Amino acid sequence: MLKLLYRLFLILLLVASSMLLYQKTNYGYHTLIAVDPAEHAAALIKQKKYAKLSEYLDYFTAFDDIKGNKRIEELRKIVIQKRTSLSYQSEKILEGIYKSTSDEPIGYASAIGSDFLCREIFGIWL
Description:
- This protein has 126 residues and is mainly alpha-helical.
- The chain has a domain at 38-121.
- Helix content is 77%, strand content 0%.
- The chain is built from seven helices and no strands.
- Helix 2 packs antiparallel against helix 3 (50-60) and helix 6 (86-99) packs parallel to helix 7.
- The longest helix has 26 residues, at 2-27.
- The chain is elongated, with a radius of gyration of 26 Å.
- The N and C termini lie far apart (76 Å).
- 13% of the residues are buried.
């Protein structure tokens, strides 16, 4: 009798878990909504975080429904143009030297270089 109750319990547990998995996969998709990356991109432009914006736009342009969006393509061109400009790169180099942080790889390199020079060569701890 105990084996029968144990088997019934396992069968009920199996049925309940399979129903939960079915509901999770079946009803989870209708709650997804489309995200417009242009709104968050505008906020990142105001904050002048072009490296993060570039990664953000690269992620969203991998999707088919965003790939043909003209506004997103224009934003990507603006970001690329801004990030490759000499004034922006020199600004990030100086940010790396003075603040020892930056959101661009060239700023990281200047931060590491300036920290090395100050600490190891001149013996100054910032």
